[in-house]
Design brief:
Two copies of one chain form a homodimer. Chain A has 690 residues and is an alpha+beta fold. The first copy, chain A, folds into three domains: 53-119 and 188-238 and 247-253 and 549-563 and 572-686, Thrombin, subunit H (Beta Barrel); 130-186, no CATH class; 344-535, no CATH class. In chain A, the strands form four sheets. In chain A, strands 2, 3, 4, 5, 6, 7, 8, 9, 10, 11 and 12 form an eleven-stranded antiparallel sheet that branches.
């Protein structure tokens, strides 16, 4: 369950660099829809997507809560992963109706449950605005050039919205070499249609996560409505009857969040020795604290499991990348690739060698990296209330400024989404909030010492737990009306409020702004300029045989269904329901591998040969969770939900010897809907999509 | 399950300071058997132990694997905690016979199972050798004085052994103000007699740990043999028929490991801001790694649960101390206590203020603390094979030196115990060893960077996992005969060996020696001298109303059975079997709170009113686990097994508002032996001890 969850933390990562991709080898590549590797697809697979094929896939693909999904029926049915939808499924659950534990099937449209705060987007059009953005910064350099580009981007986005675009944002690609304006259609009335038991969606729990063979029904269904009726989308994907076979080409459309495929070696060393260890420390610590929380009882388990699963996922992903970077052969390959560009690039003649500049910027960053990362965004507290308070304080500060001068999270293009979260009626659990804030306060004290000025300001003379109890006990921010009053009242309302949580986040906000500015000045701007020069060198060398590093926007990747060898034995590409029950017998007594009663009762009705999961070599990463896996005809043969453990290093380097994307098979989905969940109408709707 | 487990890690802690206790308040104090607070016992409780009482208790008490136990029958039966005995119970288990999971009852002497590597000791005599040790260092100072004292201690110990003492060691008390020679009797043939199911011994698992009310049958029984027959010990403790009642005075004889009750405020700040955070980081990290290991399957669970339980226990204990130190009222109290001594002490007139010297030494320590702690002892790897390799390499280096000049772990008095471990036939599990060493190598890389000279030397060009697989795959140290050959062959054999694990630990040994020497020179010796001067100031102020900080040797503590108030409700002092089943019903479905089948089947036969656990105010700490809890008559009314969460700060400061020691009730033990475990002979033997 790698992708959706990964993204929420990647959003907050301290490393701002975004660099261009390597020349694509094998099936490597997260390609732009307006920049497909047509030659490679044709020569390697004899596949040439038509304009109609591409348009249907592009417009059926959905951005879903930092990850991916797609329209799979003419009545607005949306397919994604259970672990991508689980944030909503969790919010819709109550002590009496635990949709995570028990699953959910809407037997009619009336039973479909509206989500509190879910916004989906489909990409309708791409415009190249590179010339406009570049023109704005002509003749300028450094901070001035950056500011001019930001202002231009903001102008372009505003103009697009005024011209009728529902949602438009400029995506910076190839580290500034290209700027594309993406026009989106937004969907805000989204309802839950089907979720399997979480025990089956995430069967095997943390142990099986990132493993293979897998046996996970990691999927769920939502439906988009418009004007109170199911949406009839312009395009949707058709369901494959026959599924995929070993060796078949799989095509994937999804939203990979962030790759770091061409960091310089010095930058990778920084990630390996400084950034990943801190990030892992925070994850291990949170994992223990939330594991203890869910152990307290069944209601705590219901409330906390989503957060625990998220942090376990993050821990495993980061540990996998670190393990890769501690493998000397990986570092050697990165060094070789760097030498290749460096040897031919004219930029190295410069006095200011960009590779050296990046190394020096990383060295400077060491001095304040932990502080920058630990105070970044909501990271220290992971608390809904603290996040709300921070948004209120910052909105009051930022909204009076022109959009292009605001912190990036508060620019006009971000506000619609931000208000959805801010005014969400999703439940807030005070005991969990107390635990989260107390853990965050102790974390800061552990990192910086109890007498650090920020720590003492936040603690305000109390212990971490006593402070958290006071803040959560007194604040009124659990009340949506109060949030709305404060947001609408602006700075005056914030300053007049005696809510202790607002005062609390102001101390933190000031520190975070200071560190963010220092990062931009001492590190970020240097990395931007240096990577832009390296990008230029790579264009010189490789022309357009490169794809941009992932940016959380729609990408196209591909690769055949293919097993692999591990520890001397063959790992076949497909698993089946028969295998699920065999594994269950082997792990009898382990609660992570238990099955819900109905899955045992109806075992004999399931065809044991029905495929459940399969692997392929398509290049995917965090954010691709929920991406439709398509055949050449553009039909859904599965949904991407994970990578195996060997793929974790794909963040930094693609290999296909053992690394694989893992998908739920479309045939396994239909079989479960039919036999286990008594949902023939949904099966008909999916099949009717043909 | 605080105490026994705590000790194994406390042994390795980086802080060498050992300071004198505060003037005793309420029931505070871990008193020497030759320095009881007779006046307080008399005036507060009207209790005056006779010489016979004291001798019987002292000689019945046992040092048990870093924790405590006692003789409880005339045939050498030994009572301790299950979590203290579990290291042995775990070693005696196999995939076919899991004594941890299933428990064990020997139905006859013939069925009692000999332990592989367990040595118990009872304290037979104490001699004051202060004058001898002081004389040796007369006229010397600094390093010279330390060396002279070490040599004197070694001479005294050797002389005692030559004069027929089985085991004798000098204990340094009051930070060098007193030196006592402790004579021990050793018992090396120890057999397992009874263990309950671990599920009942540690019922509620990590969540219930350090909680109260508790419902844990955390006890087990061993028997000491001599010449193939049950030992008839000179003294043993009698079993109480009636148990204790609310308000009854409880007397405890055990081996508290280490308190830091009178660290200076600057030193406590160092512990809070530097030492505890690192220690917690290591614990959180290990907890996650071992949790993942036990999740792999039932055999991995059997192998890894003991280690996982240990690290969870350590994590919770350290987090509890840190939470206490982040409470401003605790720091205020420490500051007030320090001011009191400082205001009256003449030493503050000195140019070299010892409080300031300690603060400065802590500041110096910051520069290499992480490295010193992370390389100390077996800490980074927690691997049996790496520990064996280190002992072999160091024995070859140390044995040729005079005992007084060796590293402290290799002095003559330590060797008997060391060889028991080194030649132990206890099973070694290669997959677990690989996991442990790989995790340790990655830990060092995370702390110091992958290109650190120590890290690169240890990795030798491989990834952590590949290196661990190579070391464990090739080494022959799992074979006891090979260990013996290398140990007996001395330096020549070690140098001639091509065992990669020996080469591996040599790089590590060199670094650890370098850091240990630096610590002694820059920090330890300064702390020693400064704390000695503070100790003198305290003697001046408080005379003999002080007890020395715990040193892992036999101590006497006391306090009544007493409940407490928590979050506005009364926590009664006793729990019962009835309460156990009530709790189980409340936590139905949570595997940590499940009961073995026989406990459900025989529920109706157990008297629900039989007490199971109780709390008292006796001052105990890690190492007190397994201590007998006695009534005024010196009869066993229970066995100490834990402190509640509020007592975790007792490491640094005793309070009795809520903090309590937790004991298994003697009546609960007898009831379980009788009803659940069909062990009437053991019941008769315990009762016959009257």
């Amino acid at each position: 369950m790698r992708f959706g969850l990964c993204v929420r933390s990647a959003l907050l990562a301290g490393l701002g660099a975004c660099v261009i991709g390597a020349p694509a080898a094998a099936d490597e590549g997260m390609w732009l829809f307006n920049g497909l590797p047509r030659e490679a697809l044709q020569s390697r697979y004899g596949f040439e997507p038509s304009a109609e094929w591409l348009e249907r896939v592009q417009k059926s693909a959905l951005q879903f809560d930092g990850a991916s999904g797609s329209f799979v029926s003419r009545s607005g049915l949306v397919l994604t992963n259970h672990h991508v939808g689980s944030d909503q499924i969790h919010k819709l659950s109550t002590p009496e109706r635990d949709l995570m534990r028990d699953g959910f099937v809407a037997r009619s449209l009336a039973e479909e449950i509206p989500c509190a705060d879910l916004v989906l987007r489909s990409l309708t059009r791409i415009e190249d605005v590179t010339a406009d953005v570049k023109r704005a910064a002509e003749g300028l350099s450094g901070e001035e050039a950056s500011a001019a580009r930001r202002a231009a981007v903001s102008r372009i986005e505003s103009a697009a919205r005024e011209a009728g675009s529902q949602d438009a944002s400029v995506v910076t690609l190839y580290h500034g070499a290209r700027h594309h304006l993406y026009h989106y259609r937004r969907y805000t009335d989204v309802r839950l249609v089907f979720a399997p038991h979480s025990q089956v969606a995430f069967w095997g729990g943390d142990h099986a996560n990132f493993g293979y063979p897998r046996f996970n029904l990691d999927m769920c269904l939502f439906r988009v409505y418009e004007n109170g009726k199911p949406l009839e989308p312009e395009h949707h994907l058709r369901w494959s009857e026959s599924g995929a076979a070993d060796g078949d080409l799989i095509l994937v459309a999804g939203h990979p969040w962030r790759t770091q495929r061409l960091l310089t070696v010095d930058h990778v060393r920084f990630v390996r020795d400084v950034d990943l260890p801190l990030s892992l420390f925070e994850a291990w610590r949170r994992e223990s604290i939330w594991q203890q929380y869910v152990n307290r009882g069944s209601e705590e388990r219901r409330i906390g499991m989503e957060a625990l699963g998220g942090v376990q996922n993050r821990r495993k992903a980061r540990a996998g990348v670190l393990a890769g970077l501690l493998d000397p052969s990986v570092m050697d390959a990165l060094r070789t690739a760097e030498h290749r560009v460096r040897a031919t690039a004219t930029v190295v003649e410069d006095a200011a060698d960009p590779w050296r500049q990046i190394g020096e910027a990383c060295d400077r960053y060491r001095a304040f990296h932990a502080r920058h990362v630990a105070t970044g965004g909501n990271r220290p507290f992971r608390s809904a209330l603290a996040s709300i308070a921070l948004d209120l304080v910052r909105l009051a500060e930022e909204l009076p400024k022109p959009s292009g001068e605001r912190l990036v999270e508060y620019r006009d293009t971000a506000l619609d989404g931000l208000y959805v979260g801010l005014y969400s009626p999703a439940p807030i659990y005070p005991p969990f909030e107390i635990e989260s804030i107390a853990a965050g306060l102790s974390y800061l004290a552990e990192l910086f010492g109890a007498e650090d000025p920020l720590v003492t300001a936040l603690l305000d003379g109390r212990s971490p737990r006593a402070r958290a109890e006071q803040l959560v006990g007194v604040t009124k921010l659990a009340d949506v009306a109060e949030r709305r009053r404060l947001a609408e009242g602006g700075r005056a309302a914030i300053e007049a409020s005696e809510d202790p949580l607002l005062r609390f986040v102001r101390a933190w906000d000031a520190e975070e702004r200071r560190l963010r500015a220092r990062f931009d000045r001492e590190v970020g701007s240097v990395l931007d300029a240096a990577y832009a020069r390296i990008a230029a060198a790579r264009f010189e060398l490789d022309g357009d045989r490169v794809y941009p590093d992932a940016t959380g926007t729609l990408r196209f990747s591909f690769g055949p269904v293919r097993g692999y060898e591990e520890s001397g034995r063959d790992v076949p590409p497909f698993t089946t329901y028969g295998g699920l029950y065999e594994q269950q017998a082997l792990r009898a007594g382990d609660p992570a591998f238990a099955l819900p009663a109905v899955w045992s009762e109806r075992r004999d009705k399931l065809n044991p040969r029905t495929p459940l999961n399969f692997v392929c070599t398509a290049d995917i990463i965090g954010g691709n969770s929920g991406s439709p896996a398509l055949n050449r005809a553009g039909e859904v043969v599965g949904v991407v939900f994970d990578g195996n453990i060997q793929s974790l290093i794909w963040d930094m380097r693609y290999t296909d010897q053992q690394a694989r994307a893992v998908c739920v098979d479309s045939r396994g989905i239909v079989e479960a809907l039919r036999v286990i969940y008594d949902a023939p109408a949904l099966v008909d709707e999916l099949r009717g999509s043909r």
